[in-house]
Amino acid sequence: MSEEHYLELCENPVQFEHASSVNNVFFDEANKQVFAVRSGGATGVVVKGPDDKSSVAFRMDDKGEVKCIKFSIGNKILAVQRTSKSVDFINFIPDYPHTEFTQECKTKNASVLGFCWTNWNEIVFITDQGIEFYQVFPDKRSLKLLKSQSINVNWYQYCPETAVILLSTTVQGNILQPFAFRSGTMSKMSKFEIELPVVPKPAKLSLSERDIAMATIYGQLHVMYLKHHSRTANSTSAEVVLYHLPREGACKKSHVLKLNTTGKFALNIVDNLVVVHHQSSQTSLIFDIKLKEPDCAVNTHQPVLPARSIHPYRIPLSGPAVVPSQPPVPCQLYSSSWSVFQPDIIISASEGYLWYLQVKLPPTVNLLQDKGKLMDFLLRRRDCKMVILSVCSQSTRGVLPVVATVFDKLNQVYKEYLEAEQSYTVVSDDCSTHTHKHTSAVSSTSTNTQRRVLWVGVSHKFIIAVLMEYIRSLNQFQITVQHYLYELVIKTLVQHNLFYMLHQFLQYHVLSDSKPLACLLLSLESTYPPAHQLSLDMLKRLSTANDEIVEVLLSKQQVLGALRFIRSVGGHDNVSARKFLDAARQTGDQMLFYTVFRSFQQRNQRLRGSPGFNPGEHCEEHVVHFKQLFGEQALMKPSTV
Q1: Omega prior to 363 cis, within 30 of 0
Q2: Are the C-beta atoms of residues 48 and 16 closer than 8 Å to each other?
Q3: Which of 420, 410, 477 is nearest to 447 (CA)?
Q4: Residue 636 CB: number of other CB atoms within 10 A?
Q5: What is the pLDDT of residue 429?
Q6: Is the distance from CB of 289 to CB of 273 less than 8 angstroms?
Q7: By mean pLDDT, which of 82-91, 169-178, 191-200, 583-592 is the weakest?
Q8: Mean pLDDT across the stretch 96-120?
Q9: Distance (Å, whole) CA 568 – CA 543
Q10: Separation CA 455–CA 439 (nearest Å)
Q11: Partner of 600 for a Cys bridge, out of 61, 66, 307, 577, CB 3.0 to 4.6 A?
Q12: What span is annotated as the signal peptide, if there is one (predicted)?
């Protein structure tokens, strides 16, 4: 059995000069840009980004080794750190001077650990003694200190998506202090402590930068801590501990992901899934924090799927010495030269590639046997539509409880989408827009399920059972059942002579009353005569279908029945006399014509004081016909009362 890979590297990676041909390679997480820096005389820099607009090449004066280099948003201003005391700036805005200008950190005896752009003209210096928040004036070639905060810093991490900087403080480094930045303001968030593993005294652990990552999962910012196993503790394997970091309020431990192994790990976030790469086994695990594990404690998660390696990737050969027939070279997956960045980026500096990690959904269908859990998993993923249709199609060849579970999972999300659309719900900070976009995709998936997956090569009884399960599920979530589903049920029942079942479905209102359904029943009368009466009963229950009932009865030459019905609903005074007289005359029954004619004469007498018909009723030919049959003396005379 071939291994099913549910993770893959993107087909079109960002290519840059590999490490062997340049002095340094830097990655900017905010702009998703790789900087390949080559020194010697002048410093040459080649910047590669996700698209051509974010890619650029330039030269700058060689003023020492580059420690860090990043563009502000939109490639407007370049910041370069060469020393531990200052950061240099170069304008890339058209018509602005390109001369470098420098900003030293304000704190005496502080060393700059790095910097982060929080806006196109706002930057934060992180030093070992705190942070300094500046506004950059490219036209004046100067900076203005907006705010600063003194705090001992071991290391820092930055989440560009939320503009939150996380500082490691204290000797052990496990007290983390976050700061949020927005439109020229800096906000101090609640600090929190990372629980380190217990070790024998006097040994002490410290929190490593390598074991911490920040990322947004389902619209909420999380700090991820890779907690390695402790030989003295009961735990024999590593785990990833997630801390939810809200804008306001305390940061709390929210989820624990069980890795069930030890070794070197790296973390990515792909489509709201936490991906944990394990170097020694060259495999990856995925976790979905929205999935509840029945056998685990609250918010403790096992991997959704068995460990699998990333799909093999081949690097095409390039250069003048390459022979066209030479095959691509296999990429060494899980290489020690790989660098992993949030949320979904893997960089191989030695090979000069930046990949986006992707989830492949089709292999998950066979790897996850619990179809209810599978549906929960798929419904939260991007591009899930075709895979969900495949699951629905497969399940309709299985057992009914599985079919019911799959339909309920699908329609639950579909209902949420319909309610959100109806109320124009604005997605809040605590509710990911991902979910809202997702449910709109699921709505079309649900519709396609109705139209596509139910026609399967199985017995007619099972088809009916599947259809009824789907209708039950729609009704359970108060979703309107489309007429074609009822039509499919009825036609299948009639086709296989299951009239008793049809009668029961209608009698107990399993099939909801509607005018189209009543008309469908009428059309089946030649095959199943009782369908005529079933149709009439349904139309009567609708109470808004009086005209349809009259038309049905008249078409069946049940003129007196139509007359009695229209009287029973109080519509006799307004009904067209000619319509009834036409129908009565077409029967060829003279006494029936007499009865209907006299009935409308009596109506005219009661309403207008005269039995005659108004010219606008166009009943002249019927008056003539009545005289021919019964004589003029049979006409009703005006009342003298």
Answers
A1: no
A2: yes
A3: 410
A4: 15
A5: 39
A6: no
A7: 191-200
A8: 90
A9: 12
A10: 25
A11: 577
A12: none
Give the helix/strand (H/E) hosting 581. helix 577-587
Task: Show the tokens assigned to 104.
Answer: 């030293």
202 preceded by a cis bond (ω within 30 of 0)? yes
Picking from 131-135, 150-154, 568-572, which range would have the lowest pLDDT averaged per residue?
568-572
CA distances from 325 to 135, 317, 331, 347 (A): 55, 10, 18, 28
DSSP labels, 85-135? SEEEEEE-STTS----EEEE-SSTT--EEEEEEEETTEEEEEETTEEEEEE
**DSSP assignment, residue 502?**
H
Q: What is the pLDDT of residues 213-233, one digit of tens each?
A: 999 999 999 999 999 876 555
Q: By CB neighbour count within 10 A (0-12 exposed, 13-18 middle, 19+ buried), where does 551 fall?
A: middle
Tokens of 611: 């039995």
Count of alpha carbons within 13 Å of 553, Cβ hemisphere only? 22
Q: Directed axis angle between helix 460-476 and helix 400-423, to 10°? A: 30
- Residues in CB range of 502: below 8 A, 6 or more apart: 490, 493, 494, 528
CB of 3 within 8 A of CB of 309?
Answer: yes
* Residue 491 CB neighbour total at 10 angstroms: 12
CA–CA separation, 284 and 261 (whole Å): 12
Q: 207, 173 in Cβ contact below 8 A?
A: yes
pLDDT, tens digit (0-9, with 9 covering 90-100), for 196-209: 887 766 667 788 88
How confident is the model at residue 576, as a pLDDT?
87
Q: Provide φ and ψ at 344, rounded to 5°.
A: -135, 30
Residue 462: what are its φ and ψ, rounded to 5°? Answer: -70, -35
Strand partners, 86: 104
Look at the block and give the residue holding tokens 């309920």: 408
Q: What does the mean pLDDT of the chain come to? A: 84
The strand pair at 300-301 and 252-258 is best described as: parallel
Whether residue 74 contacts residue 60, with contact meaning beta carbons closer than 8 Å, is answered with no
Collapsed DSSP state (helix, strand, coil) of residue 166: strand
* Residue 617 predicted with pLDDT over 50: yes
The token pair at 188 is 């101090």
Helical ranges in 259-367 per DSSP H: 362-367
* Alpha carbons 38 and 24: distance in angstroms, whole number: 7
pLDDT tens figures, 243-301: 999 988 898 999 999 998 888 999 999 999 999 999 999 999 999 999 876 665 568 89
Take residue 389 and report the two structure tokens written for it: 């249709």
CB count, 10 Å around CB of 316?
9
218 Cβ contact partners less than 8 Å away, ≥ 6 residues apart: 272, 289, 290, 432, 434, 435
Q: Look at phi and psi of residue 503 and say left if phi exceeds 0, alpha if psi is from -120 to 50, else beta.
A: alpha
pLDDT at 1: 36
CA-CA distance, 227 to 138, in Å (whole number)? Answer: 44
pLDDT of amino acid 640: 58
pLDDT tens digits, residue range 551-578? Answer: 877 887 888 878 887 887 777 888 888 9
